[in-house]
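Quick one: structure for this chain?
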Amino acid sequence: MSDTYDVVVVGGGPGGYVAAIRAAQLGLKAAVVEKRGKLGGTCLNVGCIPSKALLQSSHHYEMAKQEFAHHGIKVSGLAVDLPVMLGRKDKVVDELTKGIEFLFKKNKVDYIVGAGSVKSAGEVTVTPSAKGAKPQTLKTKNIIIATGSDVTPLKGVTIDEKKIVSSTGALSLPKVPKTMVVIGAGVIGLELGSVWRRLGADVTVVEFLDIVLPGMDGEVQKQVARILKKQGMNFKMATKVTGAKSAANGVTLTMEPRDGGKAETMKADVVLVAIGRRPITDGLGLDKIGVDIDERGFVKVDADYQTNVAGIYAIGDVIGGAMLAHKAEEEGVVCAEIMAGQTGHVDYGAIPGIVYTHPEIASVGKTEEQLKKSGVAYKIGKFPFTANARAKCNDDADGFVKIIADASTDRILGCHIVGPQAGDLIQEVVNVMEFGGSAEDVARICHGHPGLPEAVKEAAMGVAGRSIHI
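Got it. Here's what it folds into:
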């Protein structure tokens, strides 16, 4: 293993490992420094992947419990074997992390386990995880900071990963709690709240704002809240959590109305803190070498992902923007290509965001609220899944497709979907938006019948007021 590289990446998450592989493909000698001991970062180890595994397993259980009879399938003796379910989740994670190690070997990327810190623009110091091992100094032409993000703490609430948990602890609870309070009605809170509600927990979501899924289209927010309430999830909105006291018999939360009023308490077996994430820059030494960091802790970069210190770049959650694995991956690819003398860009207006509840929620581009605020004239086409033949056949017809197009040019400005396989359906619109396409373009494409994508076509047709099936 060499001590001299063209690029050293600090952080082996989605952005970091993808950047290293792309750099190696372009002929650069690359290494990744990762302190976790497993590649894939938060996403693969304690985020996107394990949560989706549990969402799938818990969805199967709820279908067997509530929906099979309607299809003429009789089930008896149904029970949750939580250890098996968690074991399957862990197996999925293990196989994928090993897959990245294989890709490193295939592309001749060096993988160094330890905590990386930046000594200078051309040196990275690695403190090995193993006791007694000596620090290692890597010399490199370029450095990419890809350390990702961590759970945002909540004042007065101490996470112990037992009774008061972050998303990490919520992925490995030893038993299904009778009661769970989720602090935060964002993506993580709704997804993990859905997992444990399906498995039998009485789940209450406490949110400081008046809405779920802040930042998403208003119609999506209202529809999602209605659907999740119908499924059995409870909501306590416009409420501020001021403290939490853990005891042998559970957790007691203290709360107060956001806009003033009498304080109250709520008890739960488990409390999940899911109020957001913050960048990880501690221990990197960036302040010592003069790398600019903003007031929220994000690393500042230019259009080429380079910091104010030549030769030091940053990508992913640590630079802010949408904290999404696929956004970090795209930045990693472009950053590596720029280092190799090529050009590249990321179209931040066409990055999809997906929530893997059931039904799924997916969004790309502008919301109606954003367009109203900016004064842009627009047209809307909407189509409900209740009028889609495949959704009816699947008995999975909650939600709608909403396409927003420029009033004069018909160019698609945004798309918002609540419904079955929304995360897959949104990609058609993302592709069209990347090519500067219009609602008419989608409307004129032949879609297979019966298929869920027909709902996208009908919504596009609806922009011009010519949907056929409503």
